[in-house]
Amino acid sequence: MATAQLVYLGGGVIRMDLMKLLPSLVGVGALALSSAAWAGAPVGCLIEPERVAEVGSPVVGVIDAVRVDRGDTVSAGQPLAVLRAEVERANLGVAEARAHLEADIGAANANLVLARQRLDRAQQLHAVNFVSRQALEQANAEHEVALQRLAQTKERSQVLARELGV
Q1: Backbone angles phi, psi at 121, to 5 degrees
Q2: What is the mean pLDDT of residues 155-165?
Q3: Cα separation of 155 and 140, whole Å?
């Protein structure tokens, strides 16, 4: 019995060289086509895969690049595709900015508490004539500066929140 030669043409198309089979098929009445219909005409067919693997991502996104081609051998953990990350980068920037502002507000609060303690101590010591009027005024000025820095930091936080829609 004659055999057929399969030739892969790419893109899922396989050409089968049936010219070798044609005489035997026609001879048994199984096929009655002219040889012109078979000459070099690719025959489309569907090849079922041996195994199918579902792949996915823990996040929803748009594919930016595919790192493998059809037919490539892949291993567990190998990246197959890369998702666009502009949104995640922006979210990271927002989180970092928020963390810096929260740290700045905490530091400004601590400075204000310390300045308030120094002012209270300076007032008590000035009341018993232990420190000069100048030392009291300096402690008062430091307290005012700390108060203004806290207000400025909170204002910056509010402006950033409005800009980022947080």
Answers
A1: -65, -40
A2: 80
A3: 23
Phi and psi at 82, nearest 5°, equal: -120, 130
pTM (two decimals): 0.47
Per the DSSP assignment, residues forming a β-bridge with 44 are 13
Q: What is the pLDDT of residues 98-116, one digit of tens each?
A: 888 889 999 999 999 999 9
Q: Which amino acid is at 122?
A: A
Residue type, 109: N
Give me the pLDDT at residue 55, please. Answer: 79
Residue burial 53-78, b: 16+ Cβ < 10 Å; e: rest: eeeeeeeeeeeeeeeeeeeeeeeeee
The three-state secondary structure class of 3 is: coil
Structure tokens at 63: 């594919």
pLDDT for the residue 98: 82
Q: What are phi and psi of 155, to 5 degrees?
A: -65, -45
pLDDT above 50 (res 73)? yes
